[in-house]
Amino acid sequence: IETICEALNLKVVYKTRVACPFLYHSQEEGLQSFLGTGPAAAAMNYASEKLIQNTIAGALQPYLLTEELYHLQNSFLLFIVEK
């Protein structure tokens, strides 16, 4: 990203990583969140919704903290640039 900014004659004056964790209060809440994503929608062209739900539910299991509470660490990079 910094290389792209340089190529566009933009100077990066600030860069930081911002935490934005996902916290789901039930498996159903996690399923609904991920079923709304582009990759899940694309997968439904090739597999049943039930298979996709089971796959997502299985992928959520390592993030189960307590009974019905799932926590996925997530972050994004924030850049402030100037001309």
Q: What is the topology?
A:
Layout: H1 2-7, E1 11-19, E2 22-24, H2 27-35, H3 38-43, H4 49-60, E3 64-66, E4 69-72, E5 75-82
Antiparallel strand pairs: 1-5, 2-4, 3-4
Helix pairs in contact: 2-4
Task: Explain what this protein looks like in three dimensions.
The protein is of the alpha+beta class and 83 residues long. The protein is 40% helix and 33% strand. It has one domain. β3 and β4 form a beta hairpin. The chain starts with a helix and ends with a strand. The mean pLDDT is 95.
Q: Helicity, in percent?
A: 25-40%
Instruction: Report Rg.
Output: 18 Å
Distance between the termini: 15 Å
Number of strands: 5
**Which residues sit in consecutive blocks of at least 5 with pLDDT less than 50?**
none
The strands making up the biggest β-sheet line up spatially as: 2-4-3
Average predicted local confidence, pLDDT: 95
In percent terms, what proportion of residues is strand? Answer: 25-35%
| Number of discrete domains | 1
Helix and strand run: HEEHHHEEE
Biggest pleated sheet: 3 strands, antiparallel
What is the general shape? elongated
Structural class based on helices, strands and sheet pairing? alpha+beta
Count of DSSP H/I helices: 4
Question: What are its keywords?
Answer:
alpha+beta, 83 residues, two-stranded antiparallel ribbon
